[in-house]
């Protein structure tokens, strides 16, 4: 659970993918992040289930945020995913997809994180671990 409410001043402008899919950062504090998305038919695979790529996307995004919290408006830290392992566990039962992540360790240049995807009923769909590298220098398009 987050230590304090998410401050709107800390939110970054949404990425193109975030805008397209509609996921949102709902909790963010030091070493912790939650990303959520409403379940919708366009997220299904050909079997009518939530596509595994959506699980992976939300897990990766939540772990990325969990390691990049600065607590300072305008001071944006970024990271690149070096490695991510996803385990698919079950199917979601609810209407909201929730990825909860925490930074588990690391140093100046890299960090480690873990995350789970659940829904509002508590059903667990997937888990992940990842290794991330902090970015330095200006962002490029």
Structure description:
By secondary structure, this protein is mainly beta. It has 2 helices and 6 strands. It is 15% helix and 39% strand. It is globular, with a radius of gyration of 15 Å.
Overall mean confidence score, pLDDT: 91
Uncertain segments: none
Compute the number of helices. Answer: 2
Helical proportion, percent range: 10-25%
Structural class: mainly beta
Q: SSE order, as H and E?
A: HEEHEEEE
What's the SSE blueprint?
Elements lengths: L15 H6 L2 E6 L2 E7 L13 H15 L12 E10 L7 E11 L3 E10 L4 E11 L7
Antiparallel strand pairs: 1-2, 2-4, 3-6, 4-5, 5-6
Would you summarize the structure shown here?
With 141 residues, the chain is mainly β. The chain has helices spanning 16-21, 52-66, and strands at 24-29, 32-38, 79-88, 96-106, 110-119, 124-134.
What keywords describe this structure?
6 strands; mainly beta; 141 residues; 39% strand; six-stranded antiparallel β-sheet; single chain
